[in-house]
Amino acid sequence: MGKQSTRHRYRTRREKNQAVARIARILLIGGVVFFLLLLIKNWREWWAYYKTYFY
Questions:
Q1: Cα Rg of the chain (Å, integer)
Q2: 26-37 burial by CB neighbour count: b if 16+ within 10 A, else e?
Q3: Distance of CA 29 to the CA centre of its chain
Q4: Is the pTM of the predicted complex or chain greater than 0.70?
Q5: Is 55 helix (H, G, I), strand (E, B) or coil?
Q6: Residue 38's CB: how many other CB atoms inside 10 A?
Q7: Dist. CA 43–CA 55, nearest whole Å
Q8: What is the DSSP track for 2-52?
Q9: pLDDT, tens digit, for every residue of 10-51?
Q10: In angstroms, how far is the first alpha carbon of the chain from the final one?
């Protein structure tokens, strides 16, 4: 019987899902941090928009 190829990494569905969930969590946290930084940077414009349309 031949040897299993070492060029591939065979992963279970659980391992694949864990990797995708980790990447998704990192992207989500990065997006939230980016949004908060934009909000802090432009808070006067956001506040004026809020007051105009929602206050």
A1: 22
A2: eeeeeeeeeeee
A3: 5
A4: no
A5: coil
A6: 11
A7: 16
A8: PPPPSSS----HHHHHHHHHHHHHHHHHHHHHHHHHHHHHTHHHHHHHHHH
A9: 889 999 999 999 999 999 999 999 999 999 999 999 899 889
A10: 74
